[in-house]
Amino acid sequence: MSSLPLDLAQAGLTVGAAAALSGIGLVVCYRATGVLxxxxxxxxxxxxxxxxxxxxxxxxxxxxxxxxxxxVFAPAIGWALDAVVFRRLQRRGAGPVESxxxxxxxxxxxxxxxxxLWGPTPLADAxxxxxxxxxxxxxxxxxxxxxxxxxxxxxxxxxxVRAVVDNRRLAELSGVDADRVSSVGWAFxxxxxxxxxxxxxxxxxxxxxxxxxxxxxxxxxxxxxGLRSVGVAVASALALGVLQSELTQFHPGGWAQSLLQAVGxxxxxxxxxxxxxxxxxxxxxxxxxxxxAVLTGPPIMARTEASPRAFATRIGCAALLLLPFAFRPxxxxxxxxxxxxxxxxxxxxxxxxxxxxxxLGQAGYAGLGALFTGLLAGGGRVxxxxxxxxxxxxLVAVVLAAPLGLLVGWPAIRRRGLxxxxxxxxxxxxxSRLVFQQPAATTGVVLDRTGLLGHDRxxxxxxxxxxxxxxxxVRALRRGRIGxxxxxxxDHEAGAxxxxxxxxxxxxxxxxxxxxxxxxxxxxLGLGGQAFDPNxxxxxxxxxWFAAVVVFGADSAVGxxxxxxxxxxxxxxxxxxVSTAVVGALALLLGRLPPGGLAGLARRPARWxxxxxxxxxxxxxxPGLGELRLTPLGRRLAARLPVPAPSAAPAGEAPSGLPxxxxxxxxxxxxxxxxxxxxxxxxxTLAVPPGRITALTGPNGAxxxxxxxxxxxxxxxxxxxxxxxxxxxTGLPDHARARLGLARTFQQLAVFPGLTVxxxxxxGAEQAAGGRRTSSAVEETQAVLRLLGLTALRDHAAAxxxxxxxxxxxxxxxxxxAPTALLLDEPAAGLxxxxxxxxxxxxxxxxxxxxxxxLVEHDRELVDELAGGVHVMRAGRTQFHGGRVGVTxxx
Length: 891
Ligand SMILES: Nc1ncnc2c1ncn2[C@@H]1O[C@H](COP(=O)(O)OP(=O)(O)OP(=O)(O)O)[C@@H](O)[C@H]1O
Known about the structure:
There is one protein chain. By secondary structure, the chain is an alpha/beta fold. It is globular, with a radius of gyration of 30 Å. The protein is 59% helix and 7% strand. Strands 6-7-8-3-9-10 form a six-stranded mixed β-sheet, sandwiched between helices. A four-stranded antiparallel β-sheet has the order 2-1-4-5, with helices on one face. Bound molecules: adenosine-5'-triphosphate. Adenosine-5'-triphosphate is lined by residues 675, 678, 680, 698, 700-706.
């Protein structure tokens, strides 16, 4: 006997089991390689096509076709990807964004290849490999799940996988063949992807976009499983599959019916959204070195003129945009997409290239721009507003879409790297599925161009004018105070906050500006084609756009325009899929391109590497030294060292003084900070008076850094107070404390490699007073550059400079904030003796000038030399505090 719920459960189990297969592959691949395989869906799709090709077109017997496709073809894709792309990245210690872009490259390349080989027409004849009942797929899931668990638990290979994931280098040193582990991981992941595709394809119409997106949505189950537990992935996949199916039996009627249908049809996409928004996800290693060279080219804010190559690129770009005025009508109609798409891609440049926030959902905002424009032009559909003429509708649409940038902006405040990328993708997919795919939202959309706008030539001119305005706006944004703050945030969030940058607000701003630009571009795309096409804003297309932007230079506005021209040109001039395949291939070559993608080629490379004029490590300048009072240690150290070469500063430049310093007492009162199970700081009271250096010392794990973070605002105490000059600052975030005069440096350098040396310091100067006039900030920066002898390096990228120089840059940033209290976390780490000697002199001079200085330091000689007061911690508590020099020897 059967009943409806039981039948539905059975049907749901088939989908759930397919999602479980995908989940198993994603988890295993991630555990073996540390890469979340975003190309899983594309591998599933090409395998499904291969199965169909061999059985339906070539008439191979199933007994041959199935093993060839699933056991040879799909795993070979995985193996090849590892060998050609990912192993190299692993060896280079590439960050998660580089891996993510490479995955997107693979994804885009496979989608493009499928277009070229099989065309865009959906195919409804994918053969079924398994019986229609779910039990066969479930049996496959059970066998695979059990096999993975058994291999993980009981075999040497399982141990090797854990070792490689923990620490690839260490594992290799102890004899583990890490390459073999990642090859097997990729091959297995690709095999499960192929299996998923083969199971799902018969129930769908097979096309290059649909199946990949469906499989990407099944990432939900791997994410719910924390990319760790195969069991949780399988259980959640089956539960979601069954729930999705069961929801179809309810028919509440009215709007609830549409809502239920939309939720049911998109349950995996919504589960992914819920998982990334609600779960506290932390993927091991996924936030490490998030925004490396793949996003950041040479700094473009240097004072020196743009290189002739960059200038020529801009002129070429402008000529390219003017060319369509001479086109025939049909070609001009196609070219209408270029400026519009350039605006959408520019939005990715602002959010990802400038701000470092990986945003995979910009297609959603572009679609909203088009949809709102159409609805507003039709009238009465948005907030009861009347019908507007098309240009006004477009601008109102932009205004309405911009605040929706907060949909990803808010989650982005607490998310980074891979988790943020998944969040933006999930939001974009949800917008597409819950809005664009709903007939109720998209019927009656009017995107006609009437009057002058109906003339393509005029409309193209209007598009160019809007693009030019946007480029000027983005350029002003990039080169000003906000641009520097964005660059700082992209390169090192904690460092940016310590320099006074209000990181959460800046993230919101980046996403809002990004949403506005994307909506403007989307609206123009819609008006250009005079229709709203939901498929034009498909999340998969958004991934292709993202890959294109990164390939052309994520932080290059000109790159965005060229990328748009290439995509549109190839799409109209060749067959479908060529543009996608080209972008995919270029994305895979990204590791071989200069930093900053193709745009990096057009920028002056000497400034980036800095090899021509970067001084050798430790060659600190002399200016200022003559004026400094040498203390006994300074004299001892300096005596042992060769006299430094004269001056890195230009000849005749007078050594500059410090900005005026006025110290304030920094106090911690009964500060306690607990982590799960550990009381890292336990009721510590500490005073840092002005005009003196106070040393905070103690053994490893004593709680020094935690206390330091509580003082600077990087961490909040669970109990106790922090006061600066008598003002309670306990509740203030780090950037607000920095703006009040509490500057800090980090144990692990927190400089901004994508900015020049001067801009690293200028960020601190101009954030200090929260909007101080830039001219005075520039003067202070120059003074600090002179003081630290960094003038000759001012226009060099911080990337690639020696550690000693970077410590000075970081110190310079703190000094440029005209602090009243300065916190230094092991400032001598990585310095050579001469640099240490100079640091000693400088710190003495700062204290003499009246600054309150707190120094975390292990080196006892240095502490005794520098500190007028010492605070010794052990196991989270104060062990000793006093003001006698030489006390650490007694403590
Ligand atoms: N985020 C965290 N989560 C859990 N425990 C933490 C965290 N940060 C610090 N701890 C724990 O708090 C204790 C104090 O750590 P802390 O880094 O403050 O010590 P430290 O004196 O600065 O050590 P070191 O000199 O090695 O830098 C240690 O037991 C550490 O493991």
